[in-house]
Amino acid sequence: MSLVLEKRETPSRALTFVVPVAAIVLALLIGAGVIAIGGANPWAALQEMFLGAFGTSYALTETLVKTIPLIFCGLAVGLAFKAQLWNIGAEGQLYMGAFAAGGLALAFPDGQSWWLIPLMFVAGFLAGGLWGLIPGLLKALLNVNEIITSLLLNYVAILWVQYFIYGPWKDPKGYGFPYTAVFGEGAWLPTFGDTRIHLGLVFALVVALLIFFLLRSTKMGYEIRVIGENPQAARYAGMNIARTIIVVFFISGGLAGLAGMGEVSGVIHRLQPVISTGFGYTAIIIAWLSKLNPLVTVIVSFLFGGLLVGGYSLRALGLSEAIVYIIQGLILFLLLGGEILVRYRLHWQRRRA
Amino acid sequence: MTEDMLVRMEGIVKRFPGVLANDDVDFDIRRGEIHTLLGENGAGKSTLMSVLAGAYHPDAGSIFIGGKKAVIHSPRDAIRVGVGMVHQHFMLVSSYTVAENVTLGLNKPRFMIRPRSLEKDVAEKAQTYGLQVDPSAKIWQLSVGEQQRVEILKMLYRGVKILILDEPTAVLTPQEVDEFFVTLRRMAAAGQGIVFISHKMDEVMRISDRITVMRKGKKIATVAAKETTARDLAIMMVGREVLYQLDKADKPTGQEVLSLQGIWSLSDKRLPALRGLSLSLRAGEILGIAGVAGNGQRELAETITGLRPVTKGRILVNQKDMTNKKPLEMIERGVAHVPEDRKGTGTIPNLAVLDNLMLKCYRYSPFSTGPFLNLHQIRNHASQLVKRFHIATPSLETETKLLSGGNVQRLILAREIATASELMVAVHPTRGLDIGATESVHQMLIEQRNNGGAILLISEDLDEILSLADRVAVIYEGQITGQMAAKDAKIEDVGLMMAGKTMEASPGETT
Amino acid sequence: MDLQMVLATLSATIKAGTPLLYVTLGEILAERSGILNLGLEGMMLIGAMVGYLICFLTGNPWIGVLVATLAGGAVALIHAFLVITLRAQQVVSGLALTMFGAGLSGFLGKVVIGVPIANYLKPVTVPLLGSIPYLGEIFFQQDALVYISYLLIPLAVFWIYRTRPGLHLRAVGENPATADAMGINVYGVRYLYTFLGGCLAGLGGAYLSLAYTPVWLENMTAGRGWIAIALVIFAAWDPFKALLGSYLFGLVDAVQFRLQAVGVAVPSFFLNMTPYLATILVLIFATRETLRRRLGAPAALGLPYVREEK
């Protein structure tokens, strides 16, 4: 007797919805198990996480703050995945965007000018885009594996920014700590009320809509979809695949760069060694869970924002917030495993001689 | 049952979705004989032998090996009862040596491989069977003929008594064929039963003891080679059914739309696939390219549509030199392409019907303005196409993979016809379609031709070509071996040309 | 730059190259069977953390190494199950594995961050060989895991190219349909070598935390798992070339470290970038070479094997 996978005639519609939800729930349960191994009460921990993410209005605002860079990165990664391009470099592109925007802010410490923030946006997008262009060009022209190149560039980008923070851009009044000076207020993204939610949220939602329309209503969006689904047919139809790869990586990097700009301009208000806690990597799961749909990405980003904030609140229980990565990894595992059930039926079969 | 009878197959039925591949077929193999299975592509020969060799399960019928009923569930079972099949696509690991391939998977208790002793072993066995192989050579270094010998040796090494060879000469040069036949005769003399699947008439006449002809899943007849002629066989192979008459009025042809002059091109395996092929196509006519699969048809279609480079020769579309232009330029020049591979090249199965219908026209006004798509226009256009060409789909948003084969093909044709093409290359357009879908595809092609379009129709189905085409050209090993008006085409002659005999050009035709 | 410094740098090269060597070798085995495992970074981290933790709890670094090796293999089995039996996307599964491994190691390892251990793997001089002038200092005054790696490479070469199991391994990666038709258990072979690949990755990680620098820090592998993936391509899936590649990287690492120590004018951050940039360059070069010489990845790499439906 052996376990056999049998292809279904039509994929199960019901399971398409059930699987992602089940994956999240199951991952949380297993995560609870790991927490138990870590020596804490799992149910208390889960409760703490939930409260810390959604329980109070303060918690909700904090979750929204974290949602902003996740939306940008989720869109960035999702767009690339749509064209079957693996942009694992969103983290580094984010840092480069932060670097460019931060550099501008530091150059104009007294700037109250209306053009500073828009300029920072542009700089953030361009820096991230150019950084994304490196793996993009290598892939389009030399067919170099973009997973490795984009990922290794993450380490390079972080070191690059650190150089400036520890070196020429270090705050002279900062007692030698690795921070730049705080940006002048002209470089701060306005926030809503007395929460930390900044205008970046609006831009993130706008960008999500823009990407949605890009994919649906432009020639480029159409080509992205075709190339991502069937490159052979794309070639048959005369599409320029190399050009699309380059454009996609540029936009994708640019979006991640915007995430970086948002973080330094809206939340941190200066440059510091840690600007992102793995947003670029979380974005991979967000994109996959959202099935590469920009509008769904917004919602899923919110959920994962909650996960990150909730994980952070676990520190109060003496636990490492690394549990968040465990849960993220588990969600992805379960999602991958569960997806097979949508297309195949699992059953026992008598082994034939 | 005589002791001579190695294998007997009775009443074999095998169905695939939409196709009855084997329809109550009987077949037997005697000791020491070379028995050929002859028929066109799709006749059911490979399927029948795959059943014997354990790759498929028959839906009905029985197999007797040496008089005893045999139950064969897998290729390993088949080898165990002495049946082995050498496929057209070799199952060899190209980076390994001959010896390694021959002994792959055998449970020699030896853990360490001593290449030299392994090779000695294999060399000895090869000697016994009279097969010339160098056991230490790597597969990728060998010629196709030599690789084939390795495949045969692999089977013999495992004690196979009934050897099935699927189109073994398809990839051999004439000299290699001679050597191969000597080997076959020797094996037969040693008591092996050999099944030779082929469509090549003169070889079949040379080598066979008995010949069984199949057509459209049925066994037509089994005859002794000495008692028949190539002509008789051709008639049995191709049939003399009355073709359903299409409403095809004689039309005057217009100017030359396509001219191929001495085209040379390589296949994916870097062997010459087109060897100085020339042809000419005029507006308002359908030129049918007949031939058995694997003689350069795919490469022909791809060179004309810009998907494959041409190493020598010229392609002229409407008198303009379009040799080695990119697919986009071909499309813009008005070349439409209905490709062989519906799902892999012709459509994007995961995307909607709408997305697939706009594949060729989305770049142009009124379907796009600047970078934006005019979805309204595109939808209208798509709806019209769906109506006009009777594409059965629940909606424009339906994923294309959910459509039936016939409707996918209608979609592709609708799209290609609608791009106002003057030249269309249609490759196996009705492959795998049922009669209704086939008929509607044929109607669409005739209508296109009646409207002045030129169509290059590449097909394995001779009936289809003879009923649709105005002129017929036969392709064999990358060249045109003969051309004639369809009206004047005699089936036996065409069949012979498909099998390699070259015809002098009929009067009035330019080659 | 005097002789002593050169020798010290070369000796450090071996040390720095050894973890890469283990991981690269493991991935070569997995990829030879057709399975792409991008979770190396995660498995290395788990190996590093588990090795350190177990050594801390038991006081015996060798038990730590053993458990770390098995832990790496166990985690790899998750990936194996997903991609072999469930035919999931190999790239995404590997990424999930990395994330999971990083998280798990960070979470469970919290207790031992910065906690020193008394017994770790200290260098052991090989009698006789260790006294050879120059070479002895470089090669034979290392710790035991380095010596094991010296033996593993020829063993791997022997296994892959000269044994029947090795023949099966390569067949499965090149042409699983043929291997299957010839009676080889494709799924079993792939499971085995994915597991072994995970074990070696775990071992490489344990080397980092127990021998290279006895310490556990979150994310201490700093991308070595990814460098290993590139090295596999550079090595053209050959264990001996993997040795060369690993030591090449060890050299880059050791040199940039020395330069920092010496206080050269280039800021340390840029020097730290060199391994990553070098990897990218190597990858570009290796990709072109692979194309040019038509050398290849195992033909079936990354593709799930499905036996043809009857």
Please tell me about this protein's structure.
The complex is a heterotrimer of chains A (353), B (511) and C (310). Chain A has a two-stranded antiparallel ribbon. Chain A has helices at residues 13-37, 42-55, 57-82, 90-107, 116-142, 146-166, 200-217, 219-229, 231-236, 241-268, 279-289, 294-312, 323-343, and strands at 2-7, 344-349. Chain A has 353 residues and is mainly alpha-helical. In chain A, helix 4 (90-107) packs across helix 11 (279-289). Chain A contains 13 helices and 2 strands; from the N terminus they run E-H-H-H-H-H-H-H-H-H-H-H-H-H-E. With 511 residues, chain B is an alpha/beta fold. Helices cover 32% and strands 26% of the residues of chain B. Chain B has a domain at 256-498: 3-Layer(aba) Sandwich (Rossmann fold), CATH 3.40.50.300. Chain B is built from 17 helices and 22 strands. Chain B is globular. With 310 residues, chain C is mainly α. Chain C has a single domain (3-292), classed as Orthogonal Bundle (ABC transporter involved in vitamin B12 uptake, BtuC), CATH 1.10.3470. Chain C is built from 12 helices and no strands. The longest helix of chain C is centred in the N-terminal third of the chain and has 30 residues, at 3-32. Chain C is globular, with a radius of gyration of 19 Å. Classes of the chains: A mainly alpha (353), B alpha/beta (511), C mainly alpha (310). The A-B interface holds A 10, 216-220, 222, 225-226, 229-230, 232-233, 235-240, 352-353 and B 73-74, 77, 305-307, 326-332, 337, 339, 344-351, 355, 358-360, 362-363, 368, 371-373, 375, 402.
Write the layout of secondary structure elements.
The complex is a heterotrimer of chains A (353), B (511) and C (310).
Chain A: E1 2-7, H1 13-37, H2 42-55, H3 57-82, H4 90-107, H5 116-142, H6 146-166, H7 200-217, H8 219-229, H9 231-236, H10 241-268, H11 279-289, H12 294-312, H13 323-343, E2 344-349
Antiparallel strand pairs in A: 1-2
Chain B: E1 5-16, E2 19-30, E3 34-38, H1 45-52, E4 60-65, E5 68-70, H2 75-80, E6 83-86, H3 98-102, H4 115-129, H5 144-157, E7 162-166, H6 174-189, E8 193-198, H7 201-207, E9 210-215, E10 218-224, H8 230-238, E11 256-266, E12 272-282, E13 286-290, H9 297-304, E14 312-317, E15 320-321, H10 327-332, E16 335-338, H11 342-346, H12 353-357, E17 368-369, E18 372-373, H13 375-388, H14 405-418, E19 423-427, H15 435-450, E20 454-459, H16 462-468, E21 471-476, E22 479-485, H17 491-498
Parallel strand pairs in B: 3-8, 3-9, 6-7, 7-8, 13-20, 13-21, 16-19, 19-20
Antiparallel strand pairs in B: 1-2, 1-4, 4-5, 9-10, 11-12, 11-14, 14-15, 17-18, 21-22
Helix pairs in contact in B: 8-17, 14-15
Chain C: H1 3-32, H2 40-58, H3 61-85, H4 90-108, H5 135-139, H6 144-162, H7 164-174, H8 176-181, H9 186-212, H10 224-234, H11 239-262, H12 268-292
Helix pairs in contact in C: 1-6, 1-9, 1-10, 1-11, 2-3, 2-4, 2-9, 2-10, 3-4, 3-9, 6-7, 10-11, 10-12, 11-12
